[in-house]
Structures are given as structure tokens and as C-alpha cells.
UniProtKB/TrEMBL annotation:
Cofactor binding, note field: Binds 1 zinc ion per subunit.
The Alanyl-transfer RNA synthetases family profile domain, residue ranges: 3-470
Gene name linked to the record: alaS
Major location (coarse): cytoplasm
Family: Belongs to the class-II aminoacyl-tRNA synthetase family.
Cofactor: Zn(2+)
Recorded catalytic activity of this chain's protein: tRNA(Ala) + L-alanine + ATP = L-alanyl-tRNA(Ala) + AMP + diphosphate
Keyword Cell membrane appears in the UniProt entry: no
Name of the protein: Alanine--tRNA ligase
Subcellular location: Cytoplasm
UniProt comment concerning the protein's domains: Consists of three domains; the N-terminal catalytic domain, the editing domain and the C-terminal C-Ala domain. The editing domain removes incorrectly charged amino acids, while the C-Ala domain, along with tRNA(Ala), serves as a bridge to cooperatively bring together the editing and aminoacylation centers thus stimulating deacylation of misacylated tRNAs.
Protein purpose: Catalyzes the attachment of alanine to tRNA(Ala) in a two-step reaction: alanine is first activated by ATP to form Ala-AMP and then transferred to the acceptor end of tRNA(Ala). Also edits incorrectly charged Ser-tRNA(Ala) and Gly-tRNA(Ala) via its editing domain.
Native species: Ruminococcus hominis
Amino acid sequence: QPYGVNQLRKMFLEFFESKGHLAMKSFSLVPHNDKSLLLINSGMAPLKPYFTGQEIPPRTRVTTCQKCIRTGDIENVGKTARHGTFFEMLGNFSFGDYFKEEAIEWSWEFLTEVVGLDPERLYPSIYENDDEAFEIWNKKMGIPAERIFRFGKEDNFWEHGSGPCGPCSEIYYDRGEKYGCGKPGCTVGCECDRYMEIWNNVFTQFDNDGNGNYSELEQKNIDTGMGLERLASVVQDVDSIFDVDTIKALRDHVSKLANKEYGKDYNTDVSLRVITDHVRSVTFMISDGIMPSNEGRGYVLRRLLRRACRHGRLLGIEGNFLPELAETVIAGSKDGYPELEEKKEFILKVIAKEEEQFNKTIDQGLGILSDMIANMEEKGEKTLSGEDAFRLYDTYGFPLDLTKEILEEKDLDVDEDGFHAAMEIQRKTARDAREVTNYMGADVTVYESIDPSVTSKFVGYDNLTYESNV
Ligand code: ATP
Ligand code: MG
Ligand code: MG
Ligand code: MG
């Protein structure tokens, strides 16, 4: 029996505890005191103050399994074997404590000895100039030079504007020929899913002054990140992150509701995987106090939830189906995240309300949009007008991205500037009227009735958003 997701999470944290690390609970998906980030997207993100020296860490060695959301990967979800908008990132961190040698050694020890992956299938990559990392992999770990891949700045140098930055070394796993794209030159670094990146080891050793001048940092740090789902997929030797134990249980549940077998039809599978992923995101986001709204995080949540609804429609699922899927998410993940169980009732209610709201109009909206598309095709037009897109948004609750996505499937696009202009006019009118309860087809007052005291505070109609207290 291969290790399960919940077991692997525990093994990772315990392994790094045995190496002197303090295991900390996952931080909230909502960044704390960080305006630069909408949602936490890596294990390192909530630890930034420790890296910059702004705050003193509780220990110089820390390990976490961090909930992450990457909406930037939304297009990949369901199409690649390795991307979700939600995933868990395992990480070990050193704040001026150990450096490259230990980081590399321990990552190898964990993968090959603790988890038992075949070393012959693992390939490290390094930053092209990082001879120090090369020496460690080659001399100390005994990896032949031809198995160590040197990549440029784009792939193997971690940097965000000015400040601490440095080279990284990633670990890839060869999942075998059957996953390869078959193109000549397909090897480590290829975009296909044969050589799957599983672990990124970042060595923050430089400070960039903002003008491209690098100086060695006095306090060198280690920041690593490994996707738990990806690790599980290679350990369990399955096709994708959607086939690992806990996520497969959820995917099977979606299959059952849709009455569609997985693995028979590509488009069906994409929809099954999209719903599976988005329900995970939505469940975790609400458990961290994010509420559906038209801005910021709340909009991301709304967009994911409505996108899941639409894929449900594509599969022929009728009525509300997301809350019971969220229950399966909770059952699969409460081991690592007891707050899911604690807030279960609240989470299910928020999802049910939002879905109900959207369900009232989605079929009508989809009908109107297909009329619009038919009309455009007749006239040979390629771009949907901003007013039409706004009507779908305002009356039927279609997030712009959803409209865009449906249009793209037909090789059409939308006048986004026109959309925003129409929205601005509506905003002004609304502000004047001071009475906006039915905005974007969603009655924003509905959440008040759930129990706003649980996690969030409604801050009024002006910005149509909820402020999280978490
Ligand atoms: P990829 O190149 O495959 O998109 P990445 O280089 O963007 O991955 P990093 O930013 O290096 O990923 O994040 C560290 C690790 O987190 C990755 O090695 C991977 O295991 C995991 N990871 C990153 N993005 C995702 C995702 N969307 N879904 C699941 N796991 C992810
Ligand atoms: Mg990526
Ligand atoms: Mg990468
Ligand atoms: Mg990477």
C-alpha cells in the first residue's frame, strides 16, 4: 500500500522535525500585513518577515505544509497532470542557519530513503553558474554530471524585484516514457508531464539593490517548496494529481454526481478535474474567512465557484451539487486541517447560498450568451461588445472571465475596455442610488443571514466587499 496524502504530509514534517525544525501550522490563505499578495501562493510567502529580518522567527529552522492558491495556473488546471489552483506546499526553511549542503542532502534523503523513490528516476537542476550546488550534487551526493541540468535565470533563479534573491535547484521525477510528448529533445525541463518538477530548493544568498547589483547576504537562507499532491502522485505511481487517494475520492464523487465515467472522454475528464480542483479551492478559501464578493479575494472565490457550476452544467449535472462535494473535501483533508471540520456548517452554507444564487440565472445566462454567439457568427463578428458582456455580468452573474472563457472556446473574444466602461457607469449610478442589493445578479445581503460574526464582517455597499477578520 503506497503512502497516502495525509501520511506523506506527516512524514515530511516529522522528517524535518528530526533535523531540528519547528513544525508550524499552515498559515491562512489570506496574507497577513502583505498588500503585495492577494492569496498565499507558496510556503515562503507568509514567512517573508522572517526572511527579511523584519521579525524574529520562533526558531531558525522551520517546516510547514502550507495551503496555497495559484489562480495564475487556472488555465492549466484539468489539462496538465500537475497543476491545481489549490495545492499544499511542503517546505523546510532556514533563516540564516543551514545552507545549500544540508538542504540538498536532506531533500535527497527524504525522497530516496524516507519515501523510497527510485534515485535513478530523479534529476536535479541547478542555476547555470551555481558551481557550488553542482559540486554538492555531483561530489557529495554522487549524481553523475550528465544527470544534473543547468538552466538559466528564468527557471533557476528566484527573484522578485529588489531584495533577497538567489539561485535554486529543482528536483524532477521521470514518470516514464508513456507520459512523454514524444518530441525530439524531450528531457528534463520539457513542458510535458513526463519529467515532473516536484521540489524547488531556493538558496537566498544575494541582495539585489534594485539596479541589478548583487551582493552576498550576511544571513543566507533556505526556502524550499514541494507540492504534496505531486509528491503523492509519483509515490503512488498514478497519472496525475487528480488520481492520488484523497483527490481521487473527490473526483469519483464528481463522477458519480455527473453520472460520467472518468477516463473515457477528454473534455468530460477536463470538466471533472476542474470541478474537483475548484471545490478544493473554494472550501479552503471559505474556511479561511473569504466570502464571495465582486472584488479581490472574494472575486477569485466567486469566479472559481461559478466556473465549477458551469462545468457541472457541461457535464449535465442539474441543481446544486457543490456543498456535498465540499463535504468530501473536508472528509479528505480534516486530518491536516481540523478547522475544516470546525467550520463545516458555515462553509457548506456559504457555498450553498452562492451556488443557489448563480443557479437561478446560469441557464438563462448561458442561453443568452449562445444567442449572442450565434448572432456574432452570423455577422462574422469576432468580438462581443462590452455592453453585452456587462449585461451577462450584471443580470446573470457571469464573471467576465467566464464569458471570456466560453467565447475563447469558439475562437472569439470580448471588448474588455467596453465592459469596464459599462461597469463604471453602473457603479456611479449605484453609488448615487445608495441601494445596491442585486449587484452582478447576486444579492449581496444574503451572506448576512448566514452568520457574519463567524468569520467576516460586512463592510457596506460602497465597495461591495467583506472584510475578513482572520
Ligand atoms: P511548474 O513549473 O510545474 O508550474 P513551478 O516552478 O511554478 O511549477 P514553484 O513555484 O517552484 O513551482 O513551486 C514549488 C513547488 O510547488 C513545485 O515544485 C511543485 O511541486 C508545487 N507546485 C507549484 N505550482 C503548483 C500547482 N499549480 N499545483 C500543484 N503543485 C504546484
Ligand atoms: Mg508554475
Ligand atoms: Mg517550474
Ligand atoms: Mg519551480
